Amino acid sequence: MREKREGPLFSSVSRATDSRIARLADFLARRDFIYIVVILAALGKAHWFLVFAAFGAPIYFLVLVGLALGSRHPGRSYS
Q: What pLDDT is attached to residue 60?
């Protein structure tokens, strides 16, 4: 941890960063959604986040699997 490292703090979740789906996956991989949890908790609707997470997490996983499989076959385009 003490070693100074160069480079970006966030690395992409996909090798193919030129497609819209890869950019969307990168956006969703950041932890900025935590502010939504705070806002929903302040409004007394924190359970909504659990509902969104219950549907969103498997969908996000399938998108990442699709991107990984797409990077194995460079001729395919998932944009």
A: 87
CA-to-CA distance for 10 and 64, rounded, in angstroms? 16
Is 46 among the domain residues? yes
Which SS3 state, helix, strand or coil, does residue 46 take? Answer: helix
Q: Tell me how far apart the 2 most distant CA atoms of the chain are, in Å.
A: 48
Instruction: Find the domain containing 41 and state its range.
Output: 20-72
Helix/strand/coil for 69: helix
Output 77 or 14, whichever has higher pLDDT. Answer: 14
DSSP character at residue 59: H
